[in-house]
Amino acid sequence: MVNYYDMPTPLVLVDLDRLEHNITKTAEMAEKNGKILWPMFKTSKSSFIAKLQVKAGADGFLCGTIDEAEVLVNHNLTKNIMIAYPVVDKVNLNRLIKLAEKDVRIILRIDNLDLAEHINEHLKKHELHFEYCVKVDVGDHRFGVKPERVGKFVKKLEKYSNLKFIGLATHQGNAYEASNPKEVEEIAKKTANLMEIAVKSLRKYGFEPEIIGAGATPTLRFDVESPVYTHLFPGNYIYYDRTQALVYGSASLDNCALTVLVTIISIPEHANGSIAMINAGSRFFDKRIHGHIRGYGQLVEYPKAILISISQEVSKLDITQERNIHVGEKVRVITNHSCFTNDGACFIIGHRGEHVEEIIPIDAKSEIRLEKVILNNLLLSS
């Protein structure tokens, strides 16, 4: 068996035992509380990992891109696709229509009349109908309709006959600005209350939602117990990361499944042994820091060695409290944001213990798939 320490660096690794544990535990928690789990696929963008989620009970997915939706459908992994963000351009709408023609349930999220009119006109030309959820703004202030205005909003959309209302969806993006688990809990409770207001607004206008969904890993442990939700859309729970463990309280460092294998390439003379340089940079490590944590990551083998500076191809570690590190050593970094790290890779190495078991493709990345889409459209227009 190949040991991952014998492999070239940098590489993104995933501990398969931890991955499977995280997926199974969350699926069991959702089932126990009567919630339908439709994971956010953008975290992994991998059909290999989606298969594990389906095996654990997921019968639908939330997708950040059309590429993700196509990969899931082409691998026969689901017939239920919800699209997280507005789809406006004609090419992407046509791609969704092709998926719908394969007997796939396509659910959009809509938060404004112009978007609804645009999509409805396109669907009318193809004699198709799509279902939609209203995106509810619960404090992130990106997309969404205010909870108390949801009923009136859906009433206005009734004139768009090719769109069928089926529910409400939200994302507690503001939870990622929390500084501690208590703040996360407060945001989760506030969000549930706002979604209850949205449901009352709907019922005031005679609408009964089939789906009432929310998705954010920091709030997941609270959302799953909230009676207002029917569906949950978490993504990061498969990997977790340093921020989830040390700031939000969603997990522990022992649950963190994704790491970056790097090599210590220098302990420069000028630093008197206080810093070390590694051969991985901004492609792998998110420069955002949430909460009280210091730095952008920490080493598994030397937990007090902290990633303190990121360049394009290399990064700097503070090793003042870990003087046993040496040049040429291979070490693993637990990153602050595992979704970012996963997105920087075209494949990840699945391992159990130190032994390599799988090369897992990140096969739903837009960068990999869009070339084919563009070429097809050029050929059609020529």
Observed structural traits:
8-stranded parallel sheet; 32% helix; 6-stranded antiparallel barrel; TIM Barrel; alpha/beta; single chain
Notes on the protein architecture:
There is one protein chain. This protein is α/β, with parallel strands linked by helices. The protein has a domain of 224 residues: Alpha-Beta Barrel (TIM Barrel). Helices cover 32% and strands 22% of the residues. Strands 2-9-8-7-6-5-4-3 form an eight-stranded parallel β-sheet. Strand 13 and strand 14 form a beta hairpin. Helix 3 packs parallel to helix 4 and helix 6 packs across helix 7. The longest helix has 24 residues. The chain is globular, with a radius of gyration of 22 Å.
Count the DSSP helices.
11
Classify the fold: give the CATH topology of the domain at 17-240. Answer: TIM Barrel
- The strand order across the widest sheet is 2-9-8-7-6-5-4-3
CATH superfamily membership of the domain at 17-240, which one?
Answer: Alanine racemase
Helix coverage percent: 25-40%
- Structural class of the secondary elements? alpha/beta
Tell me the major beta sheet: 8 strands, parallel
What would you report as the Rg, rounded to the nearest angstrom? 22 Å
The N- to C-terminal Cα distance equals 51 Å
* CATH architecture group name of the domain at 17-240: Alpha-Beta Barrel
H/E topology pattern: EHEHEHEHEHEHEHEHEHEEEEEEHEEH
Which CATH class of the domain at 17-240 is shown? Alpha Beta
Beta-strand residue fraction: 15-25%
Q: What is the arithmetic mean of pLDDT?
A: 95
Spans of at least 5 consecutive residues whose pLDDT stays below 50 are none
Q: Note the overall shape.
A: globular
How many strand units?
17
